[in-house]
Amino acid sequence: MSESIPSMRVAGSTVVGTTLREHVLAGMRAAPGATGEFTSLLNHLSLAIRIIHSRVRQAGLADLLGYTGETNVQGEQVQKLDSYANDVLVTVLDKSGHCGIIGSEEIDDAIVSSHPGKYVVLFDPLDGSSNIDTNVGIGTIFAILRRTEPRGVPTVAEALRPGREIACAGYALYGPSTVFVLSTGQGVHGFTLDPAIGEFFLSSPDIRCPIQGSMYSVNEGNFPRWSPQIRKWNDWIKMESRQDGRPYGMRYVGSLVADAHRTLLKGGIFAYPGDTKSPNGKLRLLYEANPMAYLFEQAGGEATNGVDRILDIQPEKLHQRTPLVIGSKSDVGAFRQFVTGERDE
Ligand code: AHG
Ligand code: MN
Ligand code: MN
User: Fold this and answer.
1) Which of 40, 73, 167, 336, by CA, is between 20 and 30 Å from 147?
2) Are 99 and 144 a contacting pair, CB within 8 Å?
3) Which residue range forms the structural domain that includes residue 267?
């Protein structure tokens, strides 16, 4: 007598969420001709971010606060965590064998990997340095491009390309929890680190930036140096108008990653305009503005320097700065109308 064959069930548990690794692997399986190198590169990047997460959490105890005493190419005092995060990223990415060129906010020139791979990786290893010692949210920002000549000798020209050529961009925000937000061109997805097991789990699939928000984020201390048009925008956004929800609330953390993350999720506008002291603003095009611009466009938002699309800017130098305005289409659109003089109220 044939024993009844136990019924088979297709495995499929909802008990365990989707990990970053699985999410990236699914992207690889869907990409024709994928070799797994990009997946491996992202896994290495995730490892570096988890190492930085671990040290950020202990910074106060591990003598990682304060300054190294050096000044970087930006002319800024280097914080110990800036330097540590930079060293971790360079070491892990170089060892991955997938990077031809590495560009870092903390390193004067682009560096050629010791065993060059197919990708260019540009990063701000520790964003929001001025907030490190006060336990405020800080982050890591990155952009990945495919090399134009993967078999050739890596050149810095392969890094000096418009942001529209980005293959993947994202950031880690070391806040109350550590989140990893990235896009490979198929929308924007957020992952939260479970520190107990060291794994990122999908927590915000398909993030969309609202078409309009109710908060603005700008360092109003620079008001005296702004152009008359930007001052008019700043006055306008604080004026009462029931019709379009003004005055907006003001939020400014002073860490781009924290201000950008809130704006991405809640909508509104973040602006770091140029001014009479810094005509090109403070933020760097290749590893702060471009990655954020890529993410905001992928999430249905917008990113401009006040006039032009950030992702269309042709870089000339590795550390060049640009005014940056990111956020909801409607709010960024209004800002641009003030800057171009189309409106003055
Ligand atoms: P970093 O710490 O990588 O140099 O970046 C700091 C940037 C950015 O995080 C933030 O938006 C901006 O500095 C804040 O500048 P202000 O303090 O001038 O407002
Ligand atoms: Mn930064
Ligand atoms: Mn930095």
Assistant:
1) 73
2) no
3) 215-340
Digitized pLDDT (tens) for each residue of the chain, 345 residues in all: 556 777 887 777 668 899 999 999 998 888 888 888 999 999 999 999 999 999 999 877 777 777 788 888 888 777 789 999 999 999 999 999 999 999 999 999 999 988 889 999 999 999 998 888 889 999 999 999 999 989 889 999 999 999 999 999 999 999 999 999 999 999 999 999 999 999 999 999 999 999 999 999 999 999 999 999 999 999 999 999 999 999 999 999 999 999 999 999 999 999 999 999 999 999 999 999 999 999 999 999 999 999 999 999 999 999 999 999 999 999 999 999 999 999 988
For residues 233-263, b (16+ Cβ closer than 10 Å) or e, as one string? bbebbeeeeeeeeeebeebebbbbbbbbbbb
7 part of a folded domain: no
Q: Are residue 21 and residue 149 in the same domain, yes or no? A: yes
Cβ(128) to ligand 1 under 6 A?
yes
pTM reported for the whole predicted model: 0.94
CA distance 309 to 326: 10
Residues 221 and 144 in one domain: no
Within this chain, do residues 148 and 230 fall inside the same structural domain, yes or no? no
Q: 124: Cβ below 6 Å to ligand 1?
A: yes
- Is residue 146 a part of any domain in this protein? yes
Distance between Cα 12 and ligand 2 center (Å): 41
Residue 77 CA to ligand 2 centre (angstroms): 13
Q: With contact defined as beta carbons under 8 Å apart, do 134 and 79 qualify?
A: no
Regarding the beta carbon of 282 and ligand 1, being less than 6 Å apart is answered yes
Say how many domains are in the chain. 2
Beta-bridge partners for 171: 141, 181
Determine if ligand 1 sits within 6 Å of the CB of residue 255. Answer: yes
Q: 106 in ligand 1 pocket by Cβ < 6 Å? A: no
